[in-house]
Amino acid sequence: MRGSSGTQTLRVPPIMAEEPDLSSVPEAAVTRKKRLRISIVWIIPVLAALVAIGIAIQRIRSEGPNITIVMKGAEGIEAGKTFIRYKDVRIGLVSAVELSEDYSKVLVKAKIAKYAAGLMVTDAKFWVVEPRISLSGISGLSTLLSGNYIGFQAGKSSETQTLFFALDEAPVITDEPGRQFVLKTPTLGSLGVGTPIYYRRLNVGQVTTYALAPDGQSVDVTIFIHAPYDKYVTTETRFWNVSGVNITLNSEGVQVRTESIAALLAGGIAFDVPEFAKAGAGAAPAKAQFTLYRYRAIAMKEPDPFERRYVLYFNESVRGLSTGAPVTLFGLQVGEVTDVGLDFDRKTQVFRPRVIVTLYPERLVAELPTGQRIRAGKSMADMSGDERMGLLRRIVEQQGLRAQLRTGSLLTGELYVAFEYFPDAAKVQIDWTKDPVELPVVPGSLASIEAKLGSILTKIDKMPLDAIGRDVRAALASLDTTLKDASTLVNRVDTQWVPEGTKTLEDLRRAINDANRVVQNADATLFSKDSPAPQDLRDTLQEVTRAARSIRVLVDYLERHPDVLIRGKPAEKQ
Amino acid sequence: MKDEAVTAASLGLVSCEACQLLSRPANRHEPGYCRRCGEKLEFRREKSIGNTWALVIAATICYIPANALPIFTTTTLGEEEPDTILSGVAFLYTSGSWPLALIVLIASVMIPLGKLAALAYLLITVQRGSIANNRERTQLYRIVEFIGRWSMLDVFVAAFTVALVQLQPLTSVAPGAGVLFFAAVVVLTMLAAEAFDARLIWDANAPGSADHG
């Protein structure tokens, strides 16, 4: 090649003189040799292949990562049906549900959409969303129709991974504007996830989760307050439970308070800033801890700067005295009972009830008129502990301040502790070194009645009841004898006199009978129809009547003619 | 079929494909036109085997996405559920209506596949010059050609369903890409069957069988 191309000359073989036999040389065709041309139809399979490959490539390119979520159970999760949702957008579909190698966990394999591949970072969270029907509403209503789905929360990390562990509960909302706070409460009560939070009766947030505090002594309720309401949660804010109804019965009547019907049924939490709080308190930082008070009155109560604990040993039953019972001074509340227990006195070997009270002297100061209050408050604030103790010692030891158990309600038998001056009370010495200091007590009003009754009974007890008894018995014995004599007498009367009397009476009766018969006979003789006596009697009476008439005639005649007596009756004129 | 039979082509004659009139070709390369009906005469259809192969391959390629892609996307109360042909068959079977599942399986999966296989078999045997089972192969070809016109049933059903089930907020059905590919498979197999010249089956048997292509 190089030789021929290098020499630019064409070497043409010299033409021979004689013609060679060319019959073996093939003859050129007139028409062009038919080439193996590819039919146009072949475009169709090529096109089909291109489209199919295009679709396949698109599919593969749109295919996101396959991830595995480890769960405790796969309730409501189905391969090919359960979606992974983020902000209600489906970002993945469960492709398989399997058990782990040791059969203790469920491995949920899911195919994540390409566009969500960037979300599968190490701190992304997954959890199962189930429909939840509570009194405050139905949440996850969509899951009622679609079944459970897997909730997702994006993480902040940039490191991707494919193995995740599902959370037991939905995590706390973090990507919504607003802030979280933690409320500490001794018991959860009727609170639950989703319990509404009210601020001036507006629903501004909800309980997102709760957990037992690490020490097991309280419950940490995590709440979420939506922006812009979260700025009303300051360091001075108080939270309280508004579950149920708050019924107050006082001299103003009955007050029924509830935050909303939902809160009435499902519970709720309200918050506000108390009046005494310092104005301009800064917004509380996120995740700040607050105490959840039982109700508004407690929550909004001014805190007591000074509090002192004292112990009272009563010599009577403390039944009806409960923790939280008020401690009053002249009827004004000055503290509360913080503990009711038992104490064993080694010296006297007796048990006695032990009541621990907490006193808040500030409250008494608050009851004073303004001027005095400021002075007292100032002096109290200035007072050292010893001075304060001295004041109390003077009051107790010299002026006779004593604690007494009193019945607050006759209906329920609730007791409270009252401090009053009892100048007559026996003087005591207080041991100020003890902590808490023991304050002297006097028997309660009920107890004092009991004591009086006791003394009466003692007096009764002291009476010579035995001697009296003996005398009474002797008297009774003599009375018995007397009665016996009387009885004998009566017997004698019975046996001796009574038969005589009976006989006499018998005779008497017979006599009366006889008399009766006589009268009857007389009756029959005189007055019977057939007896002659009445006839005679009638005749006699007629005679008498006639005689009487004659006499009257005579008398009449004599009246008219008194001279007859002298002259005699004149002869009858003819 | 061992018995030898002459074909028109082996005798230098050409038959009209439209009216079956046997005529002498005007020219060895250009047989001319049918004197009776005017149809263009051909000894054998040009590039019949190549074209048929192309269409069969195209149909086979389309058959894969037709089954892999959803033919319907049913939206029930906001929940989208894509269904491929096979998942539909599986759904029908699991929901108890196995006769329906069988019908769909036969009509939508087995028949297109069978047609493709039959055409491929015919093409291979013709190319290899096989002389066996000529009659059966012709029968097979006729069946393939006959079935072709019914193969669009699935596509029609899909079209009707999509058009009828549009209860917008509750349920709606949207066609998936699978339907397009399925239709393509049907059309391409029909075209392939049409492109195949059944006379080729018998050529290998004819004395002095000519080359074809």
What is the topological layout?
The complex is a heterodimer of chains A (about 575) and B (about 210).
Chain A: H1 2-6, H2 43-62, E1 63-71, E2 83-86, E3 89-99, E4 106-113, E5 125-129, E6 132-134, E7 137-139, H3 142-146, E8 149-153, E9 163-165, E10 178-185, E11 196-199, E12 202-212, E13 219-226, E14 238-241, E15 246-250, E16 253-257, H4 261-266, E17 269-272, E18 288-293, H5 296-299, E19 308-313, E20 326-329, E21 332-345, E22 350-359, H6 361-367, H7 370-382, H8 385-398, E23 401-407, E24 415-421, E25 437-439, H9 445-462, H10 465-527, H11 532-560, H12 564-567
Parallel strand pairs in A: 1-9, 2-8, 10-18, 11-17, 14-18, 19-25, 20-24
Antiparallel strand pairs in A: 1-4, 2-3, 3-4, 5-8, 6-7, 10-13, 11-12, 12-13, 14-17, 15-16, 19-22, 20-21, 21-22, 23-24
Chain B: E1 14-15, E2 22-23, H1 48-68, E3 72-76, E4 79-83, H2 85-94, H3 98-127, H4 134-148, H5 153-164, E5 166-167, E6 171-175, H6 177-195, H7 200-203
Antiparallel strand pairs in B: 1-2, 3-4, 3-6, 5-6
